[in-house]
C-alpha cells in the first residue's frame, strides 16, 4: 500500500505519524506510546480548538453562554445609546430593527434621525416610564367594554386600549406566535413597535421571561457569525467567522459547552468530510430514492453461501454464519478472508462496467447500482453506529452488575467508554465519506481518499469486533482495545486532514458550485 | 366573554348600516361565530352583476385571531382559490394572516377590503398563479373568463 507514503510526505499537522506497515493486519495496536494522551479521552484533541486550531479540518470558534449573549447585547445597547443619545431601551429597538448592524444604524440615524425612529416604530420619543390609567368616557375598541374604573394603556402613538385587551394581545404574540422584537401597536395601520418597558408593564412575569428569551434568540438569529446549538433545549450559541461562501471549502464543525457537536454551516450534526451543499444534495437524493434503497438498510440478510437468514446485532461488519460458519462482509457480502489480507475493495465502486455500458438502460442500471453501492455503505455505518452504541449500553449494564466479581475498578473500565465514543465518531465520519465518494471526481486524489477510507474502515471493524467479545474477556483485552482506539482516531484524523486540505484547494467534488 | 360583546356590536353595526354591496347575516341564529355574507360584484369590474356568497368563521378568541373568509360561490380570481375542498374559495389576504392581523381591525374593513379586491386583484400575492399570469399578460381574456364564471355560478339563479 503506497498511500502511507503520501501521508508521510505531507503530515497533516506537523505531528509525527509513524505507522508500521507490517502491523496493520494482525496487530494494529503496536504503535508506540506517542499518542498516549488520547487514551484518556478519545477526543481530547478537539477540545483544544479554542486555544489554537491546528488541524486542517478544524475551525476557530467561540462558545457563548446565555449570559455571554445577554451581556453582548447590553454592551451594544449602551454603546449605541451613548453615541446617538437615546435611552438604551430605544437603542435596543433600533438595533433589533436594523438587524444588529451597528454601523449602518449610526450612520442612517446621524443622517436622518426622524426617519429612522419612524421606520423602527419609535415615532416621537418617549422618556418617562410608562403607566396605565383610567379614562372617563372611554370605550375599548377591541372588546367594547366601557367600565369607567377600567385601567387602560397607550404608547406614544396614542392608540389606547383596556389593559385586559392589550395584555391579551401581547401575551398571544409572545407565547403563541413567538414574536418579540417586532410586535406592533394593536391598532390597525400603526407600526409603532411595543418597547420592552411597555411590554413588561402589561404582561405576567412568565411572559416577560419568554420575551427576554425570544429577544435573545433574535440577536443570535440576526447575526451571521452566531448560531444556536441545535441540540434540543440547549441554550448555548457558537460564534464562528466562517462565511456562507466558504462552505464549499471547509466544513466548520463546532462543539457547544455540553459537547454537542454540529456543523456551523448548516446546523446538522457533524458531517465531515462532506461539505454542506453536498450533504444537502445527498440527503435529498436519499429521500427521493428511499423506496429503491429501503431494503438495503434492513437488519437481516441471507448468508451468501447457505442462504440461511442472518441477523446483525452488533456494529461489526465481519459476519460469521451460525449455520455454515462462512465468514463474510455485511456490506459487500464478499468473503471476509479477502478483506483482511489482500486489498479487497469493499469501499470502492467498480466504474469499469459503467464505461462499457452501451445502451441507456444499462447506463441507468449502472447509475442506480453505483448509487446503491454508496448508499448501502452510508446507511450501514449509520446503522452500525447505532448497534455499536446499543451494544456498549448493554455491556455497560453488565459490567456494573459484574463489577463486584471482577477485580477492575469502574475507572479502569472507562477505556471501553472511550473506545465506544471513538467508534461512534469514526462511523459518523465513515458514513459521510460514502456520500462524499458518490460525488467525488475520479482523479489521482480519489485513490488516496479511498485508501484512507479503507484504512479507517478496517480499523473501525477491528475495534468493533472487540466489542462483541464476552464481557468477562474484555478486561484482559484492555491494552489491545486502547491501541485499536488510538489507531482508529489517528486514521480518522488523517482522513479528515487529507480531505480538508483538498477541499481548501478546491479539488475533488464534481457537483460543488 | 370579550369576543361576544365585540361580535354583537360589530354585527349590529353591519346590519344597521351595511357597507355598499354587502349584506351580513348569521348562518345560524344560535351561533355568533358563523356568518353568511352576500357580496355584489363591484360595478366596473368583470364581477359586476354577480352575487357571491361568503362564509365567515370567527375564531373563539376573536378579535385576537383573524376570521377566515371563504367564497362559497365559485369565482375566477387570482386571489381566491378554486381548489377542491377544503381549500376551495379561501382567500389570500395579507391582513388575515396571524402575523399581520390586528385586534382593532373590524369585520366591516375586512369585507370592504375583500370587495375592493374583486375590483383590483393583487397578482403579486396570488393563490391562483395561472389566473394571475393571465391577469397581467392578457387582461381581456381574464375579464372574459371571469364574466363567464359569473354567468355560470354567480347569476343569483339557483
Ligand atoms: Zn378591551
Ligand atoms: Zn399605535
Ligand atoms: Zn449544545
Ligand atoms: Zn454543514
Ligand atoms: Zn451460511
Q: Tell how many strands the DSSP assignment of chain B holds.
A: 4
Q: Which regions of chain A contain 5 or more consecutive residues with pLDDT less than 50?
A: 1-51, 293-297
Q: What count of structural domains of chain B? A: 1
Q: Kindly identify the CATH topology of chain B.
A: Ubiquitin Conjugating Enzyme
User: What would you say the CATH architecture of chain B is?
Assistant: Roll
Major sheet: arrangement of strands of chain A: 1-5-4
Q: Report mean pLDDT of chain B, rounded to a whole number.
A: 89
Our measurement of the CA-to-CA distance between the termini of chain A, rounded to an integer number of angstroms, reads: 33 Å
What is the CATH homology-level superfamily of chain B?
A: Ubiquitin Conjugating Enzyme
Task: Please count the beta strands of chain A (DSSP E, at least 2 residues each).
Answer: 11
Which CATH-level-2 architecture of one domain in chain A?
Answer: Up-down Bundle
Rg of chain B computed from alpha carbons, rounded to a whole number of angstroms: 16 Å
Order of helices and strands of chain A: HHHEHHHHEEHHHEEEEHHEEEEHHHHHHH
- Principal-axis shape of chain B: globular
Structural class of chain B: alpha+beta
As residue ranges, the low-confidence spans of chain B are: none
Assign the structural class of chain A, choosing from mainly alpha, mainly beta, alpha/beta, alpha+beta, or little secondary structure. Answer: mainly alpha
Order of helices and strands of chain B: HEEEEHHH
Amino acid at each position: 500500500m503506497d498511500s502511507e507514503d503520501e501521508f508521510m510526505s505531507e503530515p497533516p499537522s506537523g505531528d509525527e505519524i509513524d505507522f508500521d506497515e507490517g502491523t496493520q493486519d494482525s496487530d494494529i495496536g503496536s504503535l508506540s506510546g506517542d499518542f498516549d494522551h488520547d487514551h484518556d479521552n478519545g477526543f481530547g484533541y478537539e477540545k483544544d480548538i479554542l486555544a489554537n486550531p491546528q488541524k486542517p479540518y478544524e475551525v476557530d470558534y467561540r462558545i457563548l453562554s446565555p449570559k455571554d449573549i445577554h451581556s453582548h447585547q447590553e454592551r451594544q445597547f449602551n454603546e449605541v445609546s451613548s453615541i446617538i443619545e437615546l435611552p438604551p431601551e430605544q437603542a435596543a429597538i433600533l438595533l433589533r430593527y436594523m438587524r444588529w448592524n451597528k454601523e449602518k444604524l449610526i450612520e442612517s440615524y446621524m443622517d436622518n434621525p426622524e426617519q429612522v425612529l419612524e421606520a423602527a416604530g419609535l415615532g416621537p420619543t418617549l422618556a418617562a416610564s410608562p403607566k396605565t390609567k383610567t379614562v372617563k368616557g372611554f370605550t375599548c375598541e377591541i372588546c367594547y367594554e366601557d367600565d369607567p374604573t377600567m385601567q387602560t394603556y397607550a404608547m406614544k402613538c396614542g392608540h389606547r386600549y383596556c389593559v385586559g385587551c392589550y395584555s391579551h394581545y401581547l401575551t398571544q404574540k409572545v407565547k403563541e406566535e413567538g414574536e418579540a422584537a417586532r410586535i406592533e401597536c394593536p391598532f390597525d395601520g400603526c407600526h409603532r413597535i411595543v418597547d420592552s418597558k411597555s411590554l413588561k408593564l402589561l404582561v405576567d412575569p412568565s411572559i416577560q421571561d419568554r420575551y427576554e428569551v425570544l429577544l435573545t434568540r433574535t440577536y443570535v438569529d440576526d447575526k451571521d457569525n452566531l448560531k444556536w446549538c441545535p441540540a434540543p433545549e440547549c441554550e448555548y450559541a457558537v460564534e464562528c467567522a466562517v462565511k456562507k461562501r466558504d462552505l464549499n471549502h471547509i466544513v466548520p464543525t463546532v462543539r457547544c459547552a455540553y459537547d454537542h457537536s454540529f456543523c456551523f454551516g448548516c446546523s446538522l450534526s457533524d458531517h465531515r468530510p462532506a461539505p454542506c451543499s453536498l450533504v444537502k444534495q445527498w440527503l435529498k437524493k436519499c429521500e427521493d430514492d428511499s423506496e429503491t434503497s429501503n431494503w438495503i438498510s434492513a437488519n437481516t440478510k441471507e448468508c451468501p453461501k447457505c442462504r440461511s437468514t442472518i441477523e446483525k446485532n452488533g456494529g461489526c461488519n465481519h459476519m460469521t454464519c451460525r449455520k455454515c460458519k462462512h465468514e463474510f462482509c455485511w456490506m459487500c457480502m464478499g468473503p471476509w478472508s479477502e478483506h483482511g489480507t489482500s486489498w479487497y475493495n469493499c469501499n470502492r465502486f467498480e466504474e469499469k462496467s459503467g464505461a462499457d455500458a452501451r445502451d441507456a438502460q444499462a447506463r441507468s442500471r449502472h447509475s442506480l447500482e453505483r448509487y446503491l453501492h454508496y448508499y448501502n455503505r452510508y446507511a450501514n455505518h449509520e446503522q452500525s453506529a447505532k448497534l455499536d452504541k446499543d451494544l456498549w449500553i448493554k455491556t455497560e449494564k453488565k459490567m456494573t452488575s459484574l463489577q463486584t466479581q471482577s477485580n477492575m475498578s469502574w475507572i479502569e473500565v472507562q477505556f471501553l467508554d472511550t473506545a465506544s465514543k471513538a467508534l461512534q465518531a469514526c462511523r459518523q465520519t465513515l458514513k459521510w465519506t460514502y456520500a462524499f465518494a458518490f460525488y467525488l471526481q475520479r482523479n489521482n486524489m480519489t485513490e488516496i481518499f479511498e485508501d484512507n477510507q479503507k484504512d479507517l474502515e478496517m480499523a473501525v471493524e477491528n475495534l468493533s469486533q472487540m466489542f462483541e467479545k464476552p464481557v468477562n474477556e474484555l478486561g484482559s483485552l484492555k491494552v489491545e482495545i486502547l491501541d485499536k482506539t488510538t489507531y482508529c482516531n489517528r486514521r480518522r484524523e488523517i482522513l479528515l486532514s487529507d480531505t480538508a486540505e483538498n477541499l481548501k484547494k478546491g479539488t475533488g467534488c464534481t457537483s460543488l458550485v | 366573554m370579550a369576543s361576544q360583546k365585540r361580535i354583537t356590536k360589530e354585527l349590529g353595526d353591519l346590519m344597521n348600516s351595511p357597507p355598499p354591496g354587502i349584506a351580513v347575516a348569521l348562518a345560524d341564529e344560535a351561533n355568533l361565530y358563523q356568518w353568511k355574507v352576500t357580496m355584489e360584484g363591484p360595478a366596473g369590474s368583470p364581477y359586476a352583476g354577480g352575487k357571491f356568497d361568503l362564509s365567515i368563521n370567527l375564531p373563539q378568541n376573536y378579535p385576537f385571531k383573524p376570521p377566515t373568509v371563504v367564497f362559497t360561490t365559485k369565482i375566477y380570481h387570482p386571489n381566491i382559490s378554486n381548489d377542491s375542498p377544503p381549500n376551495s374559495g379561501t382567500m389570500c389576504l395579507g391582513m388575515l394572516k396571524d402575523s399581520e392581523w390586528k385586534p382593532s381591525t373590524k369585520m366591516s374593513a375586512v369585507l370592504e377590503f375583500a370587495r375592493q379586491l374583486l375590483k383590483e386583484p393583487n397578482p403579486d400575492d396570488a393563490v391562483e398563479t395561472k389566473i394571475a399570469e393571465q391577469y397581467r399578460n392578457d387582461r381581456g381574456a381574464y375579464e372574459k373568463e371571469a364574466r363567464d364564471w359569473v354567468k355560470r355560478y354567480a347569476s343569483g339563479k339557483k
